Amino acid sequence: LKTIINALLNSIKQLVEVMTLTVFCLMVFALFALQVYMGVLKNKCVKSMPSANLTNEEWRA
Q1: Key word Membrane present in the record (predicted)?
Q2: Distance spanning both ends of the chain, measured CA to CA
Q3: Is 39 left (phi over 0), alpha (psi -120 to 50) or beta?
Q4: What is the pLDDT of residues 10-49, one digit of tens each?
Q5: CB burial string 17-44: b at 16+ within 10 A, e below
Q6: Residue 55 is assigned to a structural domain of this protein
Q7: 5 lies in a domain?
Q8: DSSP H/E element including 14
Q9: Which range of residues forms the domain containing residue 25?
Q10: How many whole angstroms separate alpha carbon 26 and alpha carbon 22?
């Protein structure tokens, strides 16, 4: 029983280290993505939608 408990504690310590490294890498990736894509999806020009139904030809015109 003592051996099993020690093995469990050691594995939990190693799991915490791996999770810490994973969270750190994800945070770095998220910060990089925020800097790269900051404002890219804002202020896009879009066609205003008329109130009437349009055919495909009228929409493309």
Answers
A1: yes
A2: 78
A3: left
A4: 999 999 999 999 999 999 999 999 888 887 666 666 667 6
A5: eeeeeeeeeeeeeeeeeeeeeeeeeeee
A6: no
A7: yes
A8: helix 2-37
A9: 1-39
A10: 6
Q: What is the pTM of this model?
A: 0.56
| Angle made by CA atoms 48, 50, 55, in degrees to the nearest 5 | 110
Secondary structure class of 1 (helix, strand, coil)? coil
Residue 48 included in any domain: no
| Rounded CA separation 25/31 (Å) | 10
Which H or E run contains 9? Answer: helix 2-37
Rounded Cα distance between 23 and 19, Å, is 6
Is 49 domain-assigned? no
